[in-house]
Design goal:
Number of helices: 9
CATH architecture: Orthogonal Bundle
Shape: elongated
Order of helices and strands: HHHHHHHHH
Number of domains: 1
Helix content: over 70%
Number of strands: 0
């Protein structure tokens, strides 16, 4: 099963979800289509199993990026600590974007990631609140929401680039977040 899911991740990453076929996945995995169907009833079942795997991996990356101690870092360090593991996860898992950027994502896949997205927003909001305890709750929530959406909006640009250009775009994403967040949470709370 792992071999089939690894192959599916590659095929989805290269061809996109819609163009991917179970035959292509089976061929990449080095198994017959019949063997694939012993484990997965169709392409959606393969995608759902892969989505569950990605949800677990993304959850681990998010826990690392958004650990409670991150709020105490200088703003530049905080942004590095949050942004880098999440970008690195996406780079390491090219099939992730093919599955989760779909507008017609099946309900089972949406359900697998909904708690992760809510956890990110909630954790970013908690970091902002820890750094700016006098900030009104609605402004804190809005700042978290905008920060998360800035990251999501610029992430495809970073992922599409390679080499030095990717590094430059990663730095630009961090600079955009820094400039947005500095007036609100630029000073770390006292230890």
């Amino acid at each position: 099963m792992d071999q089939i899911l690894d192959a599916a991740a590659q095929v989805f990453g290269e061809a996109g979800y819609e163009a991917a076929t179970t035959n292509a996945i089976a061929a990449r995995a080095g198994v017959s289509p019949g063997s694939l169907y012993q484990f997965f009833g169709n392409k959606d079942a393969v995608a759902e199993a892969l989505a569950a795997r990605y949800a677990e991996g993304l959850g681990a990356a998010q826990r690392q990026a958004l650990a409670p101690d991150v709020a105490k870092l200088p703003l530049e360090g905080l942004i590095d600590r949050v942004v880098d593991p999440l970008i690195d996860f996406n780079i390491a898992h090219p099939g992730f974007k093919a599955l989760f950027a779909r507008s017609d994502m099946p309900a089972a896949m949406t359900a697998a990631t909904r708690p992760l997205h809510a956890a990110v927003s909630g954790r970013v909001e908690a970091i902002i609140a820890a750094r700016a305890p006098d900030l009104p709750a609605d402004r804190c929530a809005r700042t978290a929401q905008i920060s998360v959406h800035m990251f999501k909006a610029l992430l495809p640009l970073v992922l599409a680039a390679e080499g030095a250009e990717r590094a430059t775009l990663r730095a630009e994403l961090k600079q955009a977040l820094h400039r947005y967040l500095e007036p609100v949470i630029g000073v770390a709370p006292r230890r």
